[in-house]
Amino acid sequence: MSKYVYLFSEGNASMKNLLGGKGANLSEMTSLGLPVPGGFTITTEACIRYYDDKETIAPEIEKQIFEALEKAEAAAGKKFGDPSNPYLVSVRSGARASMPGMMDTILNLGLNDEVVEGLSKLTGNARFANDSYRRFITMFADVVMEISKSNFEAEMDAVKEARGVVADTDLDEEAMKEIVTRFKATYKKLKGEDFPQDPKVQLMESVKAVFRSWNNERAIIYRRLNDIPASWGTAVNVQEMVYGNMGETSGTGVAFTRNPATGENKLYGEFLMNAQGEDVVAGIRTPSDIQQLKDVMPDVYEQFCEICTTLENHYKDMQDMEFTIERGKLYMLQTRNGKRTAAAALKIAVDLVNEGMISKEDALMKIEPKALDALLHPGFEPKSLASATEVAKGLPASPGAATGRIYFDAKELAEYVRETGEKAVLIRLETSPEDIEGMVFAQGVLTGRGGMTSHAAVVARGMGKCCVSGCSEVLINEKEGYVVDKNGKRYNKGDWMSIDGTTGRIYGEEIATTEAKIAGDFETIMAWADETRKLKVLANADSGKDAEVARGLGAEGIGLTRTEHMFFGEDRIFAFRKMIVSETLEARQKALAELLPIQRQDFYEIFKAMEGCPVTIRLLDPPLHEFLPTDPAEVKHLAESLNISADHLTDLIHRLHEMNPMMGHRGCRLAVSYPEIAAMQARAIIEAGLKVQEEGGKVMPKIMVPLVFDKKELTFVKKIIDETAKEIFAQSNKELHYEVGTMIEIPRAALLAGEIAEDAEFFSFGTNDLTQMTFGLSRDDAGRILDDYYSTQILETDPTASLDQNGVGQLIEFAVERGRKTREGMSIGICGEHGGDPASIDFCHRTGLSYVSCSPFRAPIARLAAAQAAINNK
Ligand code: PEP
Ligand code: MG
């Protein structure tokens, strides 16, 4: 029979997959002899079984739960439901990967009408007992029975109002009793039955609810953002309650062994006396700095510091811990490797190596590649910042700079950004897990309440997003959508504000931002990554300027220049349109002659920026619909310059209209129909290369033919390129080495890669199109459809962002194998969006690709991910 339940004394840290992170670490702390309240963990396998068994808990699992409960009760010398000596527990989720706030928790379980009486007598504190009971009723109703908390909050407010009391802490024993009575009545009214009195029923219902919370909406979104598979499931931890709200010698807190925002090696955290854990995390009261615990309870502080050292040395990483002090005695409720900002991650990793605690490889594995994104995002431009006026200040919860239009509703913000692509800042009194989608779309987050470990702070740091929390200097009205700064100035929804997550400063205006640089610890880690990785990292860049940025971020060449992107400018698109709508060879050649110098100059600039490195230039691949004019005034202007009537041009444009432009007249098909276009581009590339070469620079042009499905297409286009080059060499009496290769982005090309490699000197997988065509799913519209696929769990991740290794991956593996069979050791890379995605990069490493090419800002992410792939697959 499988074992589904483990006492904390039976597990250890290596059992994370089975016990979840929290459970495994509770076991580990128990075996280290640290003060951990007793309890047990119901495994992730039990959660998977729960779903397999149509959302029921099998009798054998229930039996194991009650057996573990009995042992835990015996160890504590207490009993479930015994008023004279009650065993009370918390029930918490705990997945393999930490998912802060995404799933549910129930505290004070085991309380009922009789036990609350007993607890009152036992503790001599009826206010405390009833306060605990009303909290339990609320959580149970909310989490298990899906009765909204607001029903209970309304009752509580009514009691406060009747008694003329503002703060919860001012409610006395009688008031708490009245609240319990009202809560039970509310429960009965809304649920149609009494609040369950049997602790075993409470327990089993709560365990089921935690299992269910694995699939709540916010958990699903969080999993998708963090590549956590649904198949992992969550464990459930049942642990004896300890109370931080038993008076002034009790308290609770959260602390990190190092500063999670900066990485500084100094204890960092917060605590609240006379409070339960949820009060700290929810940010309802503003907590005190952990250093102040030294004055409040010196012995406990000292013991806590010792535990911090033990844990950090044991886990060899910065720890994030939760603790409770019950009547002067310290208890550890959780430890885990702490979430941190990217800057802190880099500093901590480098420091741990320097302290001799870990190796360079360990250090590289500690940094989440995607987190580096935050460091590559803007800071405020110093001049603009100098002229800006601070209008309030909050806590610097997650560094970075954000500027944008303010929104007070997460969903509304997400919609606004999705529709307009504009920048927005989310302002909330305090964030809750429901706000996660808005936080993803926001440039930054500002909250009125909550400390450095509040939900907003923790989640923002995890996402690498700028956040200022606990800004009590502003008055926030979420409902009516405005905020008032410390000087009384009002800002409405849609107005500009800027926030600085590094200093906590708020500005009531738009401030220009600047790009970040790689220096210090970032540089050190990047150097270690470069020593370790096998994959080369190139960049996708369409201009000399982008190529320069890419080189600064460590790109070793250009893997894709999309030449059609060079025609986006207003002056250029006109010449380009003339070329597209030309009806005769003569007219087209005239338009091409206009384009030639423009292209040559662009290529020259890219070659210059990338001297000594390969530069892959792709021949034109324009989905025509993106370039044709639609505005009548533009049509008229174009017609005039072509010396034809507007009607005639409109007619031409209609004829060029395609039902399915992504599968239309684009890619190498354009060169097949109009060889003169490929000839002009080849000329521009070769002439630009020769110029740089003449100036003493080293150029390595790689000419790439897009959208090939057959070798003969490539042979056709390659002939044009070679003949053009020959002609230039003959005329100029100069030579330049170049290569001709192809993109593999149509499934047929992958299947025929062996033949295609006879002509192609290199391959580059265009995984955007390859994904689109393998799935038969439009890359432009997939988002709308995929939402339904996530909610039904048909798909868990977006195949347009993270490579579908199962399907598209097979085509890639096949093409690599066939291509290299024909042309041994040929250079093969990837240049679709997936080239900057860590999971896809791991696949590229395993498949033996030569390089990945991604947008310039992802180059550092790709460098680190490639190093991790090399370590992972040693
Ligand atoms: C691709 O299809 O993956 C690719 C890189 O080309 P584009 O995105 O320009 O179609
Ligand atoms: Mg493509």
Give an account of the 3D structure.
The chain is α/β, with parallel strands linked by helices and 874 residues long. It has an eight-stranded mixed sheet. It has an eight-stranded parallel beta barrel with strand order 24-25-26-27-28-29-30-31, surrounded by six helices. The structure holds phosphoenolpyruvate and magnesium ion (MG). Phosphoenolpyruvate (PEP) binds at residues 560, 562, 621, 745, 766-769, 831-832.
Give the SSE layout.
Elements: E1 5-7, H1 16-31, E2 39-42, H2 44-52, H3 59-76, E3 89-95, E4 105-109, H4 113-123, H5 126-144, H6 149-163, H7 173-191, H8 199-213, H9 217-225, E5 234-240, E6 251-256, E7 268-273, H10 277-281, E8 288-289, H11 293-296, H12 298-315, E9 319-326, E10 329-337, H13 342-354, H14 360-365, E11 379-380, H15 382-386, E12 390-393, E13 395-398, E14 401-407, H16 410-420, E15 424-428, H17 436-441, E16 444-447, H18 455-463, E17 466-469, E18 475-477, E19 482-484, E20 490-492, E21 496-500, E22 505-507, E23 513-514, H19 520-532, E24 536-540, H20 544-552, E25 558-562, H21 570-581, H22 585-609, E26 614-618, H23 632-642, H24 646-656, H25 668-673, H26 675-694, E27 700-705, H27 711-732, E28 739-744, H28 747-751, H29 753-756, E29 762-765, H30 767-775, H31 782-791, H32 808-822, E30 827-830, H33 838-846, E31 851-854, H34 859-872
Parallel strand pairs: 14-15, 15-16, 16-17, 24-25, 24-31, 25-26, 26-27, 27-28, 28-29, 29-30, 30-31
Antiparallel strand pairs: 1-2, 2-5, 3-4, 3-5, 6-7, 6-9, 7-8, 9-10, 11-23, 12-22, 13-17, 14-21, 18-19, 19-20, 21-22
Bound molecules: phosphoenolpyruvate and magnesium ion (MG).
